[in-house]
Structures are given as C-alpha cells and as structure tokens.
Amino acid sequence: MKTILIASTIALSATMAGAQTIPQEVTEPVTITFYNYNLSSAGGGADATRKMIAEFEALNPLIKVEGVPVPAQDITAHVQADIVAGQPVDVAQITFPNLGYLAENFGAKALEDMIAPAELEAHFEGMVPNGLELGRIAGKAYGLAYTFSTPVLFYNADIFREAGLDPEQPPRTWSELRTAAEAVAEKTDHLPLATGIYGPTALDWLMLGSLNSAGGSVMNDDRTELTFADPQGVMAIETMRDLAQNELMGNMSIMAQMEGMASGNTAMYLQSSAVQGYLVVGAKDNFEPRTAAMPAFDGYPVKPSNSGAALMTFSTDPAKQRASWELMKYLTSKRGYTVITSEIGYLPLRPEIVNDPEYLADWAAANPLLQPNLEQLSDMTPYRPLPGPNYLQIVISMMDAMEMATFGDDDDVAGQLSSAQERLQRMMP
Amino acid sequence: MSDAPSRVHVSWPGQARRRNTPLRRGDRALRPYLYLLPAVACFVIWVYQPLFEAFMLSFRQWNMLPVSPKHWVGLDNYCNILELPKFWQALSNTWYYLLGLIPLAVGLPLVIALFTQDLPPRLRNLYRGLIFVPMIIPPVVAAAVWRWLLDPGHGIINLGLQKLGSSPVDFPYDPDITLWTITFITGWKLVGFATLILSAADAAIDTSQIEAARLDGASKWEIIRDIRLPLLSPTLMLLILMVVLLGAQWSFAYIHVLTEGGPLGSTTNIYYLLWQFGFGSLSVGWSSASAVTLFVGVGVGVGFGLLAAALFALKSKVTFHDD
Amino acid sequence: MTTDAALRAPLHRWRRRARLLPKGWDNAVGQVLMMIVSLICVFPVYWMIVTSLRPENEIFSSALWSDAVSLDNYAYALGTMPMVRMLVNTFTVSLVVTPVQLLTGILAGYAFARWRFRGAGFLFGAIALTWLVPLQVVMIPNYLLVARMGMIDSLGALILPHVASAFAIMLLAQAMRSFPSEVIEAARMDGATHAHILWQLIVPNLRGTLAPLAILIFITTWNEYFWPLLLTRSPENSVVQIGLQMFITAEGTQWGPLMAASTMASLPILLIYLVLQRQVIASFMKSGLR
User: Fold this and answer.
1) pLDDT at res. C281
2) Which of A206, B43, C61, C162 is the most exposed place for a label (fewest CB within 10 A)?
3) What tens digit of pLDDT does each residue of A281-312 get?
4) Number of B:C CB contacts under 8 A?
5) Which residues contact A151 (CB under 8 A, 6 or more apart)?
C-alpha cells in the first residue's frame, strides 16, 4: 500500500500544477518524452519518425525530444504506469480505442484547456473535420489524429485472372464480393477472403465500420446504450456468417491473415491500409497486389471506419506542455503529414497537400494504391471509443460473441447478439 | 532477524573453519531461517506483497490514479470474470493442455534420458545436444517458425503429407486440432529442458548399485524399473509439479502468436483469458480479480493436490538431519 | 538412500526373467526414434537459419534450401537496431542473475535439506506457489517500487526481481537431499562447520546439478520479455528480446531480419550450452563420490 500512497502525493501536487495556463513560447531548454509505436518497429516508420523529430529539434533548438519506442499494444499500460508512478509522459501516440479511457480517467490534457482558441483554430485549419472529430471526447479535443488509415480491400490480381474475374472490376458490394469469392473457390486452390474484422487484437474498429455501413452501429450517439444487436447489426453479421459457413472466408489470427495475403495464397483481404507496405514487399516478383474501396452493403452507403492513433499530451509542467504542443503541431503540419504519408504509409489528414507540388503531388502520382483510401476520407465515420473503465472488456466480449455468431455452429445470430448485448450493457457506465 | 547480515557473514567458509566454539542454542534455531532469508525476502518483496495488494484491490473499482476514489464493489469483479462465456471453456482447455504436456514434457524426456544414458558418451552428448536446441530459440520465433511449417496451404509438413497421399491437415486453424498443435509446440520447447534435468539426476545415481544389480543378472529394464525410476522419482515429481503450475504460462507465447486464443476460443487457456481481460487496459478491478482467481482458483484446484503429493514425496526422501 | 536390503529385495525376480527380444533390438529401435526426435527438434531451428539467409522476395518460399544466399537480413538487423549493445546488455544481466540465483538457491536448498524447522513445509509450499503468480500480476506494484528507487531504464532493475527462483531452490534442495549422509556425518565427526560442509563438500559435488541449472537460469533470463519491456526506455539500455520484438509490428512482421536477429540472439546461448555441457560431463566423469 505504501508505494501507492507515496505515488499519490506526487501525482496530486502534479495535477494541481496542471491547472495553470501555459506560456506562449518555450524560453528555457526543456526535454520532453514521446512514446511512439512507429519507433518500436524496425521498419520505415522508425526512420521517418526519427527524421521528423530531428527536423523539429532543428527548428526548436530549446526543445529536446526523447523518442521512446513502445509497441502499440503496450503504450496504454506504459502511460498508466508512468502516471501512477508520478512521472507522466509528455506526448504519446495513443490508438483510438484507448483514447476515451485515458482522456476520461488519466488526466490527459484537453487542448482547449491549454491553448488559446485562436491558435487552435489556426492549426485546425485545413484538417479533415472527420479526422479532428476523432480526438474529441465530450466536445473537447484530447487527441490530435496523427497516424491514421481506413480499411481497403486488397486483392490479388493474378488470382482474379485465374478465377476468370476482371481485376479492373473489383467487387464494390458484399454481394459482388460473394460472387467473386465463389469464383475463386471454384476455380483455384486459394482462400477467397480474409478480413481483419475478426481477431482479438483487431478490437472493434473494422467491425464498427461494417456495422455503420449496414445502417447499424455499435452503440447509440451519446455512448450509453449498446445497439449492435439491432436488426441492421444482425443483418451485417448474417452476411459474414453466410461467407464463413460456405467456406469463402477464413477465421485466422491477424498474423496468419497478413502472411496469407503477402505470400499470394489469399485472393481478397479487407484490412487497414496501414499494412499496404508489408503486402507490397511480399508481392514483389510474386503477384500483382491491388486495392479497392471497402465494400458496401446493398442499399446502404458505405461508411468506412478508421484505425490508427492520435497524439495526446499528459504533461503537467506548463513549459513542457508548451513544448509538447509545439511537437504535436509540427507532427500534424503539412510537412509532418507529407513524411507520414510518403514514408510510413498513413493517410494525410490535410488533403490539400496531395496536389501540392511542394508536398505530396509527385509521390501521390507514383503511388496509385493510396487513391481508394483518399477517396474514402470524406465518407468516413469517425471511430468512437466505448466508454467507462470496462471499455476494453466490453469490446473483447462483443467481438467474441460476433466471432461465435459468424463462425460458430449456432445459426441464431440475432439470439446470440442480443444475449451478449444484454450482458455487456451491465458493464457500461 | 536484524543481525542477519553478520550471521551469514560469520558462517562463510574461511572464517567459519577457525571458529571452534559451539553455537548457542538460539543461534541454532535461527540458522535455517538465515539461510532462507535472501530467497524469502526476494519473494516477499517482488511476489507476495504485490499479490496481497492485488487481493485487497480485487474488491474495488479504481483506475489506479491516486486522486480518484476506490469504489468498493464487493464481488462484482469476480462475477464479471466468472460470467465470461469463455471462462469455463478456458478452464477445461487448461486441463487439456496439462494432459497433453505431461507426456511430452515429462514422459518423453524420461525415456530419452534413460535411453541415452547407456549410449557411448559421444552419441549420448550428440543426441542430448540436438534435443536441447529448441530451448535456445526465443518463444516468439519458435511459434512463428512452427506456423510456417504447419501452414495448411504452403507449409512444408503439409506438402509432405500431401505427397504421402493424405489430405492437408489444418493444424493452426481447425478448432479441433489447434489446441494439440500448441501443446505440441510447448512440449517441443520443453523436451530439452526436462531431458537435461533428468539426465543430471540420472547421472548422479550411484553406479555401483547398478553394477551390482547387473552382476546379479538384472536386465536393463529391471534396473530402470527397480533402481533408476525410484531414485528419479523426486526429480520427476518436481517436473510434474512445474508443468502443472507453469504449463498454462508456458503456452502463452504460442497462443499469442499463433491463434490469439481462437478459433472460437478453442485454444484459450485460463492464463491467456485472464491476461486478455485483466491486463490489456490495466483496469485494477479486472486485473486484480484475475490475479486472485488464477492464484486461488488454479492454485487450490490444480496445484495443491500435487503440491501435497510432492511435499510428501520429498519429505519421505529426506536423508540427513543433524539436530 | 537405497540400502543394501532394499536393493537385494527384487533380485530373485531379476534372475528368473528371460530375455524377450534378441539382444540389441531395443537399442536399434531406440536409435531410430532418437533420430526422429532429434530431427523434429533441430529442423525448425534449421529453418530459422535458412530463412535468415533468404533474400527478401523469397521469404515465404518453402524450398529446403535457397540458392541465393544473402546476408542482407543480417546487415539490416544490425543497421536498424543496436543489436550488439543489446546483446551485451542481455549478457550482463544473465551473467549477474545466474550466480546470484544459484547462491540463494544453494543457501535455501541447504536449509531445507539439512534441518527440520518450524514452518519448513509452509515456506517450501509458499516458494513453489510463486510459480502461480504470473509477472503481469505483480508488474505494476513492482514498477512503482523500481520507480521509487530511481532505477527505471537501468539494468539493475532487470536483475533485482530475479535474485531468487523457486525452481533453483527446489531442484537444489532435492539434489542435496540425495547427497550421501554418511559423508556428511563423517565430516561432522571431524568438527566441520555447516559452512564448511556446504561449500567444501556439497557444492563441489553438486556440479552435475549446478551446471544444467546454470544453463537454464541463463536461458530463462536471456528470454525474458515483459519486465524489460516495461522498464527500459532507450534501445541502448534494452535487451535483445525487445529488439527482436521490434521486427514484429502491427504493420507487418519483417521475417527476414527477425530470423537474422533471432539467430544472432540464439548463438551465444548455444555457445554457453556447449561450454557448460562440457562441465556437466566432466563432473560426471570424475565425481569420486558416486
């Protein structure tokens, strides 16, 4: 118990200091820490992130940024442990499902509480409104959407040809997709379809997009009632169940899904555009990878969701808060998104830079796979995190129930979803 | 206990030899505790004290933030865990894992250790060396490599099976098979470890007994059954205890990389399930209740019977005691 | 522990039993089975090494051997990660933890094997039950403790919780119990102290147990992942398992470099094993006591 008592006195004094307004600029040398999961990968993401940090430090000689690599699934735990230990991290890259939990429970700083409205306004100018919405909890911006992607349908053009399908005409709806999948199953040995919708580490981001696209939703607008067992939700799961029960869609862990696609054994793969770089490397000299937009349900507009992460600040010291904000601004500037898009593979949340020769124009012309993804940005329905301290357990349980309703032996989809919804509603705050 | 450091110091070899005065009775009574002190202190600080904290917190809902209140929720956290549809599935899977691991991680190594002991030294060391190799591979990499080898589409093992005329076996994703696949990989990683421990114990057996028996006309099997196995039984007990208490944790990395507990929860075990729900968000209520469930539930349900058996076995083997 | 009487008991059975199989038959079957088991043990490791030598576009190939051998994966792994530094760190931690764990294990094992004392059963049980406490359970309180000691991002914090291990204690207690009591009694008669008996008599003769135990402690420490993950901040203060994990990301796993890094991480352990294994064999050969 003693450990916690001591930590509490430290954190209490720290929280009180946080109530002040922050200085206009950094006047003394200051060092801030930055938890980043791109740094924790050995790929291009780490190099690009280091490059952006170096550029930022060159522009702001008084600020030193200590970039700390932390794997994506561990950042929330790290941030919590540090806060409890009384040493909050300054800036962290937080995946969207965890954003609400940290904002509501762990003293993340809302930008409106630190920064003058005019300055905020100026920075938000030109950013996709849907993207900005992602960082807002109860009307306040706690996070700034940073690395960000939407679901796309990857497909293997060679398998399409082998199955007698036209790679120029990828499926646009789930029923077209089913037809294509049947052709693949009939004429080739390959797995017709894998999706990143299922699998425990996926959480609910892609399911949320699928439910929204079917006219349903995971929960109601004020985040108080779960609604995934409504008729629209049942319809979406029944569509998936039909694919699964006819052995057109496989149930695999995310690693197996990605490897199946990268090694040329899967015809179609619905997944975040963030994995594109990986698939392209695997496809080289092996098959021709293509992308299409997320499929729609017949009669409903497609509403893609998003995966990815926002930047949040937990600094309590005013000078560090200013330094953190300066870093967040730089990383989400036109220059920042140029590096993020061209070198890591996420989407630019400032779409104007795509046609700006000073930024992304040349790169975008050379990389057509990005196009379907960009077109989806305006249709996107921002991801909304589940509320309360049990958010993660609700998500996992909901996904378990949906996996069972899709791949299990019981045909009563509506019944399974309703009983799960009823049970999980009790865990909502 | 306050004079612990000096006491340990006094009983160090070089100095101790010079001490001829007999120790007082009180010192004698304290001595075993002093020898145990470093280890016990380590466990109290790093294991039992945090576990006690977890127990106290398992009746509360709290986000660990010092300024926020700790709500008393009674047994709610436990109810949430017991209500998970996967809980009982995970519990029975845990049993299957243990059931599969005992022959792989204790039975097979025993056979190997006994068999190789009689081989010429060169061959013996070669076999034991080869069998030890899986132990040096990081668990994540082991899981990844095995998934490649077992892949139903392009895995080399299935390609081999197809050549032999069998239809491909869906080792990693068929809900009926996957659990055994993971058990196999966990066991594969452990064979070398258990063989090493058993070989060491086997080699420590007094060879004169075996020679005497051999001169009396005992066959190899009879020597194993009547001399070696009884002498190996405490080590076997230790290994079985270890597999039972640690088995669920050992398979963690393989479940995590290969299946994430799926398909349809068929490979999740109690440890993986509680980890998923308790530690993903560091929610204090869930994680503490998970910890206590694991410790008390598995500890009482699975561990104690064996622990009692092991303690009994060890006690009866005690050979020397002074005072 | 087995007396002459106990040994003589089954003798009459031995003499009567006739040989069922021709001589050498069981040995031949055993050899074949051993070869199969060895192959199963070694093949995945062979696969790891072969994959680490494949060029990038052949990573998913299922050919047993690739004609195009490439060291690119090694160059990449060494270039993107301070692998050498991480290996040195891991080596340092394992090298400190191993003797310390052996020491606490020897002391505690001796206490359990040598004396009857109040609470011995309870303490033994409590030590065995630490196996049931997964690291995640104690991670946060321990993190807070380390933070209070100001040891975050230091190698010391990776060592401290591993000062003692239940396995070492139990195995050593077990080994010491089977140590011939006549030898100890003889030493007692000569007026040897406990320390003398432990360090000059028992420990040198336990090399056959201590060497494999040292190998296992070393490997367990070497493969530790969760605790270093929470504690280390900079790659320079990190251990090699964290480095390996960096090739496995949400955006895809870089198999080639991962296999190269894993091969590099496994080689030192293989060497340690070979060296200590020699020690194990040597101790079997010349142990005069047995």
Assistant:
1) 59
2) C61
3) 778 888 999 999 999 999 999 999 888 899 99
4) 310
5) A196, A206, A209, A270, A271, A272, A273, A294, A304, A305, A307
CB pair distance less than 8 Å for C235 and A69? yes
pLDDT digits (tens, 9 = 90+) for A185-215: 999 989 999 999 987 677 888 999 999 999 9
Domain ranges in chain A? Answer: 27-149+307-376, 151-305+388-425
Q: Does the fold of domain A151-305+388-425 match that of domain A27-149+307-376?
A: yes
Residues 260-289 of C with CB under 8 A from A: none
User: Residue A422 contacts by C-beta under 8 Å, 6 or more apart in sequence?
Assistant: none
Residue B87 touches partner A, C-beta closer than 8 Å: no
* ipTM for this prediction: 0.82
Mean pLDDT, residues C110-131 = 87
Considering only residues 95 to 134 of chain C, which have any Cβ-Cβ distance to chain B shorter than 8 Å?
103-105, 107-108, 110-117, 120-121, 123-134
Which domains does chain B show, CATH number per domain?
83-316 (1.10.3720.10)
pLDDT above 70 covers a percentage of chain A that reads 94
Question: What pLDDT is stored for residue B323 in this prediction?
Answer: 38
Q: Average model confidence (pLDDT) for chain A?
A: 87
CB contacts of B213 in chain C (<8 Å) are 7, 11, 14
pLDDT, tens digit, 9 for 90 and up, residues A130-178: 888 888 888 889 999 998 888 999 999 999 999 999 999 999 999 999 9
Residue B298 pLDDT class (50, 70, 90 cuts): low
Chain C partners within 8 Å of B54 (Cβ): 137-138, 141
Q: Does domain A27-149+307-376 have CATH number 3.30.70.20?
A: no
Which domains occur in chain C, in start order?
82-245 (1.10.3720.10)
Q: Which CATH architecture has domain A151-305+388-425?
A: 3-Layer(aba) Sandwich (3.40)
**Which is higher by pLDDT, C139 or B190?**
B190
Contacts of A47 (CB under 8 A, 6+ apart): A343, C80
The verdict on pTM exceeding 0.80 is yes
CA proximity to A109, closest of A84, A125, A124, A92: A92
Closest approach of A263 to chain C, Cα-based (Å): 6
